[in-house]
Amino acid sequence: MKPQLSELQQQLDDVELAVQYALELAAKEGTSAAECSISKSAGISVGTRMGEVETVEFNQDGALGISVYRDHQKGSASTTDLSREAIAAAVKKAAEIARYTSADPFNGLAPKELMTKDYPELDLCHPGDQSAEYAIEQALACERHGLDLDKRIINSDGAHYGSHTGFRVYGNSHGFLGGYLQSRHNLSCVLIAKEGERMQRDMSYSVARRTQDLAAPEKVAEEAAQETLSRLGGRKIDTAKVPVIFRADVAGSLFGHFVSAISGGNLYRKSSFLLDALGQQVLPSWLNIKECPHIVGGLASSPFDHEGLATVDRDIVQAGELQTYLLTSYAARKMDMQPTGHAGGIHNWRLTHGDKSLADLCKQMGTGLLVTELMGQGVNLVNGDYSRGAAGFWVEHGEIQYPVEEVTIAGNLKDMLANIVAIGNDVDQRHALHTGSVLLEEMRIAGQ
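Now predict its structure.
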């Protein structure tokens, strides 16, 4: 059972007509502006555990949301029923709600002149087999292979396979109406190993727009087994100040805090440690961050943002200096600036990296901590204070010595970002932010 592109395109066309109809009705309600959107996804998710099928879920999600403005008063409503009667009822309800909401001078649509016009085709939709038989086969093959790899692997927290296709449509009373198809497939496995009386768990996963770009079930299982077995025999370490490497798969979280700190909502609320940092040095001078929203087939590619604004290649950081904030139209009006096309998130951030592998970074570090897992949410975006539980490996003389557990790493995000020593070539592209492993000059490690 594989969705056909022609069928998906017809569904998208039908939804565009529904959005257009909603906007026409909103205009008849005497509103000053309106916007309407729908994101729809359909597919299958399968979970297995210890060789047995645990869950099989088919889902079809999506609701049409309409927002109308009466001057600066806003009313919103939604419906999963796309019949003309249901759409008319939703529009009428949104218009009614707008009469009773408080006026906010910063409410409204994004500027008309910034709406995208001829947006590119980014090849984001590649339907895969969504039959239960195929999904179960992929999950079981992954989990079984993992359980057979080593006698120390005694259990599994399961394998999961998912395949979804869908689309996003957005329109507003400026005359913008657009949509695009998309797909996403994923495979993951979590294994549990035991040595003596102590147990460890870890995982691996793969995600792609096309099923043929997913890692094979055996490869995902082998990576999950390697990660799990490598953690056996974990030790505590003494409290110290040492260099730290965030491995590529957790390094994205470090820059995720950076994204939050330069996002409009935190800035206009004055709850960011990077308040008034525009044009200032926030990263080392050798480090650039460039946004590339139009990468063909990219996992975070998008022809326009959730307000219909054009997404464009953009320098976020150049030579370490912050070039732009990330602003929705609401945040932009609050800050007397222009929106940047980031309603809905960031799009394929590429960070400068060197030619050193993770092993090379360990050699450069000499002695310190390699972090492979982070726990807890001890991050204060207002002042940048950072404190999180961590696990990983202790490194001496440039070589991994033993696994480490039950430690806390602490510092201040402003200092951590400014004191990045190097970024490795092991770039993880499974997220919207593409970075390799990150070597930091120094952090406080709280151990035993």
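The two ends are 55 Å apart (CA to CA).
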